[in-house]
Write a structure and sequence with these properties.
The chain is mainly alpha-helical. The chain has a domain at 23-52. The protein contains one helix and no strands. It starts with a helix and ends in a 5-residue tail after the last helix.
């Protein structure tokens, strides 16, 4: 009986590791996407602020 419980525990541990790897992969993809989007958002906001400022001579 102890052997069956041991094998069951290994499967649960394996599933936990798989979920952790998936979470890590999703996190890396999300960070990469937000970094790429963030750069264009900063550029657009800079453009808007520049356009809203009155021309100073």
């Amino acid at each position: 009986m102890g052997l069956l419980q041991s094998l069951r525990g290994r499967e649960e541990g394996q599933a936990l590791v798989e979920y952790a790897l998936i979470l890590a992969l999703v996190s890396v993809v999300a960070i990469a996407a937000l970094t790429a989007i963030g750069t264009s958002v900063v550029a657009k906001l800079t453009e808007v602020v520049t356009a809203r400022q009155p021309n100073q001579i």
